[in-house]
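Retro notes, item 3 of 5
We never archived the inputs for the manganese (II) ion complex last cycle. Fixing that now. Sequence and ligand:
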Amino acid sequence: MKHDTRYVNVKNAPLDFDISSAVVYPNFVTEEEGKSLINESAKRLKRRRFEDGHWDSVITGYREVELSTPNEHELNQDTHKDVPQFAKAIHKTRKQLADNHFNKSNNNHIQWLPCHAIDLSAKGVLKAHVDSVKFSGEIVAGISLLSDAVMRLRLSSDEWDSDDTKDDTNSDSSMNSSNTNEEYVDLYLPQNSLYVLTGMSRYSYTHELLPTGSTFELSRSGGEGDDDDTEIEVIRGRRLSIIFRDAKKGKDNSS
Ligand code: OGA
Ligand code: MN
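Structure as it came back at the time:
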């Protein structure tokens, strides 16, 4: 499975941006695998209500649920045929992440947190944030379902982070995150794709979803010549994402 560099636009990125820290695999799951993840999530989300805030309203208009799966040990038994398809898709994803986005030396010791399914309504918003460094480890990855989207990464700094509070709406300070920070990286996330954030993209950059109607510049040849670029208008409707995180190392688990 190959990732596609055309899906990560670094034209406006800082010079020292590490392109290996943000990758997109288009069509990572098959239609069928995607459907199994959608169905399983729908089942578990049924009794959840849409919420309007959490983490200082980083996210609004969403529902969220854990997608626990049978563990590796059970999976390796002969009961293989009983493993539901959504769980196979999750294990396939974890294997891809373990084999390609962790140091070879410790990729046998990854402690995965349960996946989260996030159902973001068409009007829902996911604002710039860095995932908890207290609970979550070195990787943040997600499968996009039901809708295409554009994710933007921007350099995280204390100034910009604290900007996210409500009282700066009427401050006329020129230090406004979205206006002064002109450096960013965009990820095009079509349905059934997998994105992976590690290293600087996970720890030093915020991630957010752009509003519907945003454009993404897809370079057709994967290289030279802006003439070959196609602008894609990305309509984001209701989105379902399956989020993968590993546990933060230390404390309880040795090494
Ligand atoms: C999150 C997040 C992105 C997505 O829940 O922390 O960044 O793809 N989600 O849903
Ligand atoms: Mn996040």
